[in-house]
Amino acid sequence: MVQIPHSTSTYRNFMSLIKRRSIPYKYLQAGDSFQLGAHMQVSILHPALEPNPEVWARNLTVGEQNSYSMVLRIEYGNSVFLFCGDIYQNAEQEIVERYGSELLRANFMPATSSSLEFIQAVDPDVVVVSHHVFSPLSVYRRYRENGTLVFHTAIDGHILLTSDGSTVNVITEREERIGMASPFLSDWNIFR
What we know:
Layout: H1 9-20, E1 33-36, E2 40-46, H2 62-66, E3 71-76, E4 79-83, H3 89-104, E5 108-110, H4 116-122, E6 126-129, H5 137-145, E7 149-152, H6 153-156, E8 159-163, E9 168-172, E10 188-191
Helix pairs in contact: 3-4
């Protein structure tokens, strides 16, 4: 089980509240899975192993901490969503080596993960990029060059995805409808 010490006040307050209210909790790791309702399966793809204790003898860089971000694969009917946290390319490589492209194939994923190998293994139909100061344009371009439809909060504003298990709707803050000429978007209703 991966138990990474965090120094943020948000984390400390959250854990304090859980303990104060005696709320049971479990650290999840790759290989764990659970059902949400009758139709949604959540699988944990990353992180895989307890980090080496020597790693915790020093302060981790932001990149090292982010490489232990949880990666979730959520299946809802025929729709698959991949949430990659803030993993870096070393974690992407571990995931591709562990699962290969068949398990990783996703209809949707957020664009914090960006190596070309990972993008090609996942081959998402749609990606949502949450804009912040560290979102390089190169990430956007890599997804576009892979044939992925990219939504970016800096361009599209708020982005909402809904699904009934067979069709995924993408609604952006700008409510203009986009044409659906691409064959990989046959089950996507897109509104901007």
